[in-house]
Amino acid sequence: MYPLTELRRQILDEMGVDVWSLRDKSGVTDVDTIQPAARTQEGTRQPAVNNESGADWLSLQNTVFSCQACKLAKSRTRTVFGSGNSNADLLLIGEAPGAEEDRQGLPFVGKAGHLLDAMLYAIGLNREQVFICNVLKCRPPNNRDPQPDEVEACASYLTAQIESIKPRVILALGRFAAHRLLETDLPVYKMRENSNCLPGTNIPVVVTYHPASLLRNPEQKAESWFDLCKAKSLLEQSSP
Ligand code: SF4
Fold first, then answer.
1. Where are the beta strands (DSSP E) in the chain?
2. Mutation choice for ligand 1 from 81, 133, 136, 159, CB with most ligand atoms inside 8 A
3. Global pTM?
């Protein structure tokens, strides 16, 4: 077992970052005192989690659980509602469940999920402190791109999640989620450069690469680190 400082150094090395220190520890857990991200309910469905909206949140979970609103209902194993803190300040949104997510009913498991855990840990957060979900709640067969009718059918669930969680910052993981959230087709590099807000709100949307893309293109990790620091800084700036 490595000391936490050594573990942190290793994670930053993995992220392609040499040196890092907190600018301000207010509002978030100290990176040197938190435990490595725990994978809650590994291998099981995420249990019902109430937030301040209580029954509405539970009702939303149940609706998604049994949803048949698009053709993905026929091919999925499980719906993937999302997991984490349903009152989180930081909301992470990806594209759609993959094979392992479909099997476990949880978002971002497997190698990409472990990398996401490391990314969160590197900015002093873990899965219990954020909420993680996808634009689509069911897996497209063979991991094909989501189709417009599926995205349209599922859109109200993501909207309801955002309205219920009321995040202070959204981190869009990958091109698809960013395009959907920002209602644009700009390339990722342009969205990363821009100061984005969720349309119709003042919620900042930081765009970064999908963890699966980072696994294929490790040279993107340094840019991803920059994006995470930007999200962290926005969280700190919006602390009450
Ligand atoms: S992808 Fe969304 S709309 Fe389609 S069946 Fe799953 S939960 Fe329902």
1. 83-84, 90-94, 130-134, 169-173, 196-197, 204-208
2. 136
3. 0.82
